[in-house]
Amino acid sequence: MRINKLYLSLLVLALLAPLVLYPVFLMKVLCYGLFACAFNLVLGYGGLLSLGHAAFLGTGAYTTGYLATRVGLTPELAILAGTAAAAALGALFGKLSVKRGGIYFGMITLALAQLVFFFYLQAPFTGGEDGMQGIPRGELFGLLSLEDNLTLYYFVLAVFLLGFWVIHRTVHSPFGQVMKAIRENEARAMSLGYNTDDFKWLLFTLSAAVAGLAGSTKALVFQLASLNDAHWQMSGEVVLMTLLGGVGTILGPLAGAGVIVTIQNQLSGGELGNYIHMIMGAIFVICVLAFRSGIVGEIQKLAGRGFSRQGR
Amino acid sequence: MFDINIMALSGQLLIGLINGSFYALLSLGLAIIFGLLNIINFTQGAMYMLGAFVAWFGLDLVGLDYWAALVVAPVLVGVVGMLVQRFLLRPIANENHLYSLLLTIGLAMIIQGFFTHLYGSSGLPYAMPEALKGGFRLPFMYLPMYRAWVVVAALVVCFATWWVIEKTRLGAYLRAGTENPQLMQAFGINVPLIVTATFGFGVALAAFAGVMAAPIYSVSPEMGANLLIVVFAIVVIGGMGSIAGAILAGLLMGVIEGLTKYFYPEASSTVIFLVMVLVLMLKPAGLFGKEA
């Protein structure tokens, strides 16, 4: 029951947070948190290091932006479409990359994402370097205006919880158990009759879909879809968030995203703004050398038994 | 599209060959490091940039000319690489290899961030060496001397590296170390030393490429980052199986990119990635790779 109490108190915290903190900041944390959770699904539970996840975030953002601006879709439909587009792209990426797992996987996903980046750079509808600006937040189901930051916050929170729930369910389902078996010993899983490539492909596609969901939501929050979303640096950032929070933990990526977004907000504009990439790099190196379990992983160690690993 | 302009076409082919030379040097370094350490070195792009910056500093501050830089930069950067391997990568060598890879990503961010902080993202010019100015007038095109030099020098270095690895005793140690490091160690060969030296040599190749690139492209902190992603695609195309494969795939992709610039310029930045997709569909192990 301990785990439910933890989730419940976090939920109460999330509901009350906008009373204290700026809603846009919170929404940014939630969007990146969801993005990192999606990424963690492939790295933490599939053992696959994807370096191209920005492509899904960007595809979600651009698709939603285009449909909300040009076609005038309501936000929930635009987000749904963005998620579907990212899932389709993920299915394609997955088909090409899971066959050559291991060390190649990262390089292939990175190169594919770069291909997508160049597509968005050259495509006429994305606005090139300027990005797609002034995306309308619209009215939910055509009824409830999302213009107000606070209203939008609760909508984003709901989206986050939905995505988080999907990930949670996946990890604790029989499918998730097979994925863990594949991660720990692929040859054995294969000998048990599992087609491991199919499992990885499905996991990757699901992860891409949730990453797209995060990107779509982010596009509505900032009313902007830009090349930054699809840039390889974004793929690097999500790795960092996950690593810092704790690879393979359910809540780690959210914690990592919270810390990184906070650092970025604090530094940008300040004197240290120029050092931001160096600081991010240094956090990367320190995490790898001395802090491999990440924030949540370390807390779990201290607590003696896992919060999120109870389901095992 | 069908009335082909020989001058323009051969010009693009030459540029393609030059880019291909850089691709070959970088993917060769990656392949060598991968062979022994089993990691993809993400600092390769940063080391290429460092090489160019050593040349630029040398010329600007201490009057180190181009020819000296061609030797000094790879040595210096190679030493940096060996220090990185010895003090950062070796302690985590027994962890999951993904951590080593992540470490090199972090390092690349630090190095690139540091130089961007100092010099911004605009390029610094590097003067062409006197002896390599001018060029040859061929019947169908004008061949600048420096460009010819780059292609020849890169080919010589690549061939020499291939020869050392495939044909000499030292190379035999390297190949044996790739197959079975424990057994090598048991035979009394200092494997950790070989691993450190190999990493140093791999990044030195990148630095060498960086110095040669300095007079053609301007020296800038971001020169390595985007190039590295292209090189990754080339590594996937070639497959990590062979040293010769890394070199050939690099040159081939450079030429294909050059041809694309002539026939369909819009696709020139994406053609290598598209070839990668094609290769993954038809021959997943890569053109020269062995099925794992």
List the helices and strands and how they pair.
The complex is a heterodimer of chains A (312) and B (292).
Chain A: H1 2-16, H2 23-46, H3 54-71, H4 75-97, H5 102-122, E1 132-133, E2 139-140, E3 144-145, H6 149-171, H7 174-184, H8 186-191, H9 196-222, E4 224-225, H10 227-230, H11 232-245, H12 252-267, H13 276-290, H14 294-303
Antiparallel strand pairs in A: 1-4, 2-3
Helix pairs in contact in A: 2-6, 2-9, 2-11, 2-12, 3-4, 3-5, 3-9, 4-9, 6-9, 7-9, 11-12, 11-13, 11-14
Chain B: H1 6-37, H2 44-62, H3 66-89, H4 97-119, E1 135-137, E2 142-144, H5 145-167, H6 169-179, H7 181-186, H8 191-213, H9 223-238, H10 243-263, H11 271-282
Antiparallel strand pairs in B: 1-2
Task: Explain what you see.
The complex is a heterodimer of chains A (312) and B (292). With 312 residues, chain A is an all-alpha fold. Chain A has a domain at 23-229. Chain A contains 14 helices and four strands. In chain A, a hairpin with a 3-residue loop joins strand 2 and strand 3 (144-145). Chain A starts with a helix and ends in a 9-residue tail after the last helix. Chain B is mainly alpha-helical and 292 residues long. Helix content of chain B is 72%, strand content 2%. Chain B is built from eleven helices and two strands; from the N terminus they run ααααββααααααα. A two-stranded antiparallel ribbon of chain B has the order 1-2. In chain B, helix 2 crosses helix 9 (223-238). Chain B is globular and about 60 Å long. The A-B interface holds A 43, 49, 96-97, 99-100, 102-104, 106-108, 110-112, 114-115, 118-119, 122, 232, 236, 239-240, 243, 274-285, 287-289, 292 and B 34, 38-40, 88, 91-92, 95, 97-103, 105-114, 116-117, 225, 229-230, 232-233, 235-236, 240, 266, 269-270, 273-274, 276-277, 280-281, 284-285, 292.
